[in-house]
Amino acid sequence: MTDLGLRFSVDGPVARVVLDRPEVRNAQTPAMWRALADFGRSLPDDVRVVVLSGEGQSFSAGLDRRLIMGENDQGEEPLLSLGAKPTEEVYEIVAEFQAGFSWLRNPNIISIAAVQGHAVGAGFQLALACDLRVLTPDAKFSMREPALGLVPDLGGTQPLVQLVGYSRALEICATTRWVEAAEAKEIGLANIVVPAEELAGTVKDLTDAVLTPLAGAVRETKALLLGAADRPYADQLKAEGAAQERRLKELLAAFG
C-alpha cells in the first residue's frame, strides 16, 4: 500500500506498519488514517505484537500541512472545511480519523513504536497510541496542533496525561516545545533510548520478550492496566479477580 504512504506486513504473531513518505518526513493524511484503521480491523487473531516505524530520518512530521487548506494532490477535502459542517458530521469524521490510532490500544496486541527523528503532532499521537516506545537519541516529540490553532484530537491527550501527568502534559501541549529523547526517557514518554544502529535489534528483542508469556495472560494484564486509572481501588481488585478467574478456566481447559 505504498501509494498511500504505508507498508503493511504480517509474519506470524508480529505485524509491522511502516510510514513510507520519507520525502515529506512521513507526513500523514486522512487516507493513511483510514488505511491504518482498516489494517487494525483486519489483523489475524494470532497477531500479538504490532511494530510501527517510519522510513527515512523521521518517524512522522505529523499532518501534511497542505491538507489544512486543501492545497494537495491527495484528493482530500480541506480540513478547515470541517468547521462548516453540522456538529454530528464533524464528530463522525473525527471519530473515523481517530480509529486509525485507537486500535493500537486493543488489549489483544502489544504495540511498539520505533521512533527516530521527528515525531510531531499526529506523529507524536501515533507514538502515544502505542504501548511501548523505543527511541534513538535524535528522536524528539512536539504537540504542534495548538501552534496551528488546532487541538490534539487523534487520541493522544489521554495517554500523554497518563504517562507524564496533567501539569507536564499541559505544558508540553501549550508551549508546543520539543521534548528530546533524553527528557522523554526521564519523564516516561520513552521506555528506552538506544543508538540508531541498535534500534531494529532492540525492537526485535522487546518483541521476543513480549511474545514469551502466554498470550491470554498478556491480553488480560494489558486490559487491567488500561482501565486501572479510571477504577476505584476496590473495583480494580474485582477486575483482577475476574481476569484471574478467566485465565484459570482457560488454563484448566487447555492443560487440565
Question: What is the compact description of this entry?
Answer:
This protein has ten helices and nine strands. The chain is α/β, with parallel strands linked by helices.
Task: Provide a descriptive summary of the structure in words.
- There is one protein chain.
- By secondary structure, the chain is α/β, with parallel strands linked by helices.
- The protein is 45% helix and 15% strand.
- The protein contains ten helices and nine strands.
- The protein has a six-stranded mixed sheet with strand order 1-2-3-4-6-9, sandwiched between helices. A three-stranded mixed sheet has the order 5-7-8.
- Helix 5 crosses helix 6 and helix 9 runs antiparallel to helix 10.
- The mean pLDDT is 94.
Fold topology:
Elements (H helix, E strand, L loop, with lengths): L5 E6 L2 E6 L10 H13 L6 E6 L11 H4 L17 H16 L7 E6 L2 E3 L1 H8 L2 E4 L4 E3 L14 H8 L1 H10 L3 E2 H7 L4 E2 L5 H13 L3 H14 L4 H23 L1
Helix pairs in contact: 1-3, 5-6, 9-10
